[in-house]
Design a protein that fits this description.
By secondary structure, this protein is α+β, with helices and mostly antiparallel strands. The protein has 13 helices and 20 strands.
């Protein structure tokens, strides 16, 4: 996903309509979130603008073979309750054993996000009473998390123009290790709830972003950049469709110079597109509520993707309700660097911050800069290559195998190939046209063996364009004076195209 930015004005305020639907009406005043930052007054003259404030809490599932405190396997879509240890089920007498891999993943992520890594961090109990949390509490890091005070830079387009990009930064308050809960499956037909504990105890990193954003597009761009970083590091696969990256958005509005308004939390958003819609809807809902003389309630809400609006879940619980307390069964987590590493220590028994730092891969921002420097392409093109799954590798494979200059190759990939992939919701790895075939085709074009229009037709055929295939069948029938069997011709063409 290439972030489009927040250059546009919210033109409508949304409200709940009859039957739970969402309708729209024009507000007395609205606000634009400009990609350059700040509030922009619109509507009636002389009225104070609204300043939206957005902060995020992002839960990323750590890529690990086993859970955070038990040896149970981690596997998506396994049969219900097939990956549950005695500890996961909270049987009496069971104790947590910390997973080293999860610690290393959190340190790696913290370093990539410019955080200070705490050499001593602590674990706490956070008490809930949910059916899918057998112990009645979650082990987390409330007091002293593993990483603090970081930052994440992300890019936005101004007024939806890829050629006009601006870089913004959001502060990272902290990264903490914690357990995931199980999953409740609600069977409305039988009026019952079933519990699957496969996910209970899976290791999570909670990345807490400060309220430095002002609209859905900024939030989406920040989350997409974080997702790319996690996938580059290998600390999380961050597949939102599988629940490996879940976002809670904290939203409030206020007038310039006034304290922040009462915030609401929109929970468990599992799509970057839904995040954009949820945040922008919630901003407009709060503005309309305040302009109509109402108040914003400090509550937890959910985003209904079918209705396109947020709906109340429950009143927001205060910290005291969680009854935080130190985790008595886990000692402090001690990390080392090159200076503090004890002599004659078994390196398999400790986590060395400097060792992890030396092995960090190139992050997305570095990859973009290298693409521009190495191939002479535009920065906005490097942004698209890195942000689209597998597209950078596809591009580099084509460049290696073709005589065509990279600046011309990028045009074919972004204009012709990518538009088809997006139209059919495909990634570069799922492309019907391989990098080998595209390179061969571009070589033919570069050598003057085929025209540009012919090359585009070949791409269209490989992409399964029926109109172009039918045109070829017509040409064959014309050449054979109508004697060729069209079904047989189509079978032969399809066989050739699949080779």
């Amino acid at each position: 996903m290439a972030a489009r930015g927040c250059g546009g004005v919210w033109r409508r305020a949304l409200q709940r309509g009859p039957g739970g639907s969402c309708s729209a009406s024009r507000p007395r005043r609205a606000v634009a979130c400009n990609a350059r930052g700040g509030a922009v007054p619109v509507g009636q003259s002389g009225l104070a603008p609204w300043v939206p404030v957005v902060g995020l809490e992002i839960h990323a599932q750590i890529t690990s073979n086993s859970k955070l405190f038990s040896g149970s396997q981690v596997q998506f879509a396994a049969p219900p309750n097939s990956l549950v240890s005695f500890f996961d089920a909270s049987l009496p007498g069971t104790l947590p054993v910390l997973n080293r891999r999860c610690v290393e993943a959190a340190v790696m992520t913290g370093l990539a996000l410019n955080c200070t890594i705490n050499k001593k961090s602590l674990f706490d109990r956070k008490h809930y009473f949910y059916a899918d949390l057998p112990a009645g509490y979650q082990i987390t890091q409330q007091r002293v998390p593993i990483a603090v005070n970081g930052s994440l830079s992300y890019s936005l387009c101004i007024d939806n123009k890829m050629s006009q990009m601006v870089t913004k930064t959001v502060r990272i308050k902290q990264i903490q290790l914690e357990q995931d809960s199980g999953k409740s499956l609600h069977d409305d037909a039988r009026s019952q709830t079933l519990v699957d504990l496969n996910r209970a105890g899976v290791g999570l990193m909670e990345v807490v972003m400060e309220p430095d954003m002002c609209c859905g597009e900024e939030a989406a761009a920040a989350v997409r950049e974080l997702q790319l970083i996690l996938q580059t590091l290998g600390s999380s696969q961050a597949i939102m469709a599988e629940g490996q990256l879940r976002v809670d958005a904290n939203v409030s509005v206020h007038h310039p110079g006034e304290p922040y308004g009462v915030r609401t939390e929109v929970k468990n958003i599992n799509s970057i597109r839904f995040l954009t819609k949820a945040v922008d809807y919630e901003i407009q809902r709060q503005i309309k509520e305040l302009e109509n003389g109402g108040t914003v309630v400090n509550e937890t809400r959910a985003f209904d993707s079918k209705l396109g609006c947020t709906v109340p879940m429950r009143d927001k619980e205060g910290k005291q309700d969680y009854r935080f307390m130190p985790e008595p069964n886990l000692p402090p987590l001690i990390l080392y660097d090159a200076k503090s590493l004890p002599a004659n220590v078994n390196h398999q028994q400790v986590v060395n911050i400097d060792w992890i730092h030396e092995r960090l891969p190139d992050l997305p921002s570095v990859k973009r800069a290298k693409l521009v420097e190495l191939y002479g392409i535009l920065p906005e093109h490097s942004f698209t290559l890195v942000n689209e799954d597998g597209l950078m590798e596809f591009f580099e494979d084509v460049v290696k195998r073709t005589q065509m200059k990279p600046k011309k190759v990028i045009g074919w990939i972004l204009s012709d190939l990518l538009s088809h992939l997006k139209q059919h919701s495909l990634t570069a790895n799922e492309s019907p046209i391989s990098s080998f075939l595209l390179a061969d085709l571009l070589n033919l074009l570069e050598n003057g063996d085929v025209s540009s229009s012919a090359a585009k037709q070949v791409m269209a055929i490989k992409e399964g364009n029926e109109k172009v295939i039918n045109k070829l069948i017509g040409l064959v029938r014309k050449a054979t004076r109508g004697r060729a069997n069209p079904l047989l011709v189509k079978q032969i063409l399809e066989k050739k195209l699949s080779e």
